[in-house]
Each structure stands twice: as structure tokens, then as C-alpha cells.
UniProtKB/TrEMBL annotation:
Alphabetized UniProt keyword annotations: DNA-binding
InterPro entries from the UniProt entry: Cro/C1-type_HTH, Cupin_2, Lambda_DNA-bd_dom_sf, RmlC-like_jellyroll, RmlC_Cupin_sf, TransReg_Diox_bact_type
Keyword Metal-binding: no
Lineage: Bacteria, Bacillati, Actinomycetota, Actinomycetes, Kitasatosporales
Organism from which the protein derives: Streptomyces ochraceiscleroticus
Gene3D superfamilies for this protein: Jelly Rolls, lambda repressor-like DNA-binding domains
CDD domains with a match to the protein in the record: cupin_XRE_C, HTH_XRE
Full protein name: Helix-turn-helix domain-containing protein
Domain HTH cro/C1-type: 16-70
Length: 202
């Protein structure tokens, strides 16, 4: 069954090819940087692969660009309403993300996601560009950043440099939360030459 027009799969295929071409990277070099196999990258660029959270975050880290630069989440002019049922889910080992909006703030930008963490699994990230902000709405969430463990309940917030290795684990049941990714000036989806100033990447 083919993906619908405008699906995450289609948007990632087009944006990944464009980003790789801007940087003059071969599939082999991008494979080395992202730790994703060449065959998988080829499938993603052709629109036949099945992207996961882990894949997209690895590409974001390797290409030094925001997640929205790969998923093409561009806000419309004027008021924007996003219905949960209309947003395609990007799933990983333990997390389901629904991209809701990207907006500019001064010289930087934010991406807003509805984030659900499933019970019984751990979502690991080697790191990616941006500063990560999570606000728990329901459930209890364990967040580990460079080995430091923090437990959060409803209404609690944590923020950290997303280039550092981190992990999310739901405690005692599923977790509903809001994820905000903040990008500093110069880190924009359309800017193929920009590099974040967040320190080294894994």
C-alpha cells in the first residue's frame, strides 16, 4: 500500500535527498555519520522505507539540522488548528510523536510535538540538534541525560541540551507529554549550511 501524499515517508524522502545534496555527502558518508545502513538510506530516499524516531533523530544529528527540516512541518499563515486524528504518528522503540507545529521566535525556532511514551520500553537517543523541553501531562516519566536520572510527574518540566545522550522511560503506565524542540539562530530547516552551536554530537 503506497503512502498518502504528504506523508512522513514522502516528505522525508524529498528532504533527505535535498539535504544530502546540499552538503555534498555520498550515501556511504551519510551512512557512516548516521550509523544507518546504505540500503536503508536508499530506501528512505526513494520513499519506500519505514522511518522511525530513531532514524529521523540519527539523520538530524548527522546532518546537523532540525527535525522539521526532514519532516517539512511548515506552519500555515494565520490561525492554525491541528487535529490529533489528522497527524501522522512517528513511532520509535517507546515513543509516539505527532508533529504539531514549527514557529519562529526571534532568530531561532521551536517545534511542538504531542509525545506519548509507552509502558515497558525505553526510548534512547544518541543526541540531536536543539534544546529539548518536556512537560508531563499525565503519568510518570523517567528522563536520563548523560546518566543522570530525573523522575517527573504531571505538570513537571525538564529541559536539556539535546545533543547529549538521553532516554525516556514510562513508569507504571503510559505517559502523555508535550515535547518542545528549540533551535538557536542559524539552525533552520531550509539552511543547508547552518551548524548548531550545541557542542559535539555522538
Amino acid at each position: 500500500m503506497s503512502a498518502p501524499e504528504g506523508s512522513i515517508r514522502d516528505m522525508l524522502a524529498a528532504n533527505l535527498k535535498r539535504a544530502r545534496a546540499r552538503r555534498g555527502l555520498s550515501l556511504s558518508e551519510l551512512s557512516r555519520r548516521s550509523r544507518i545502513g546504505k540500503a536503508t538510506l536508499s530506501q528512505l530516499e526513494s520513499g519506500t522505507g519505514n522511518p522511525t524516531i530513531e532514524t529521523v533523530f540519527s539523520l538530524s544529528r548527522a546532518l546537523e539540522m532540525p527535525i522539521s527540516g526532514l519532516l517539512d512541518t511548515r506552519p500555515a499563515d494565520g490561525p492554525t488548528v491541528v487535529r490529533a486524528a489528522d497527524v501522522e504518528v512517528l513511532s520509535g522503540d517507546a515513543v509516539d510523536l505527532r508533529p504539531l507545529r514549527r514557529f519562529e521566535l526571534g532568530e531561532g525556532g521551536f517545534e511542538v510535538y504531542d509525545q506519548q511514551v509507552r509502558e515497558g520500553a525505553r526510548q534512547n537517543s544518541l543526541g540531536h540538534v536543539g534544546t529539548e523541553h518536556t512537560i508531563v501531562q499525565a503519568g510518570r516519566l523517567a528522563v536520563e541525560v548523560d546518566g543522570e536520572r530525573i523522575e517527573l510527574g504531571p505538570g513537571d518540566y525538564v529541559g536539556f541540551d539535546a545533543s547529549r545522550p538521553h532516554a525516556y522511560t514510562a513508569l507504571g503506565g503510559p505517559v502523555r507529554s508535550v515535547l518542545l524542540l528549540h533551535y538557536r539562530a542559524g539552525v533552520r530547516p531550509a539552511d543547508g549550511e547552518a551548524h548548531p552551536v550545541l557542542g559535539p554530537h555522538a
